[in-house]
């Protein structure tokens, strides 16, 4: 009995409707990730920036590499202003 009352109240409550309203774009369809056939066939890379400074060179960014077959993460420290050549050298 009370469930109907709560549901009806939430449908008519302006505050509830605004809180539950989706304002962003609709998400796309999910896609299956391709299965790797062996180690180091597929890797994912992403940057993490805005980290507090630390280390010998005052690193404040990190390149995260994940080898998908074994799901092994590798974390490489960088400075925010390192170049593409610096990245290629470390990889």
How would you explain this protein's 3D organization?
The chain is of the alpha+beta class. The chain has a domain at 39-81. Helices cover 27% and strands 31% of the residues. It is built from three helices and three strands; from the N terminus they run ααβββα. A three-stranded antiparallel β-sheet has the order 1-2-3, with no helix packed on it. The longest helix is centred in the N-terminal third of the chain and has 11 residues, at 2-12. The mean pLDDT is 83. InterPro entries: Retrovirus_Pol_polyprotein (IPR050951).
Question: Taking strands numbered 1, 2, ... along the chain, how are they ordered across the largest sheet?
Answer: 1-2-3
| Annotation field: number of helices | 3
Percent helix range:
25-40%
Main β-sheet: number of strands, strand sense, barrel status? 3 strands, antiparallel
Shape verdict: elongated
* Arithmetic mean pLDDT: 83
Q: By helix and strand content, what is the structural category?
A: alpha+beta
Radius of gyration: 23 Å
Elements, N to C (H/E): HHEEEH
Question: Proportion of β residues?
Answer: 25-35%
Q: How many individual β-strands?
A: 3
Which ranges are low-confidence, i.e. pLDDT below 50, for 5 or more consecutive residues? none
Distance between the termini: 63 Å
Short summary:
This is Integrase zinc-binding domain-containing protein. The protein has 91 residues and is of the alpha+beta class.
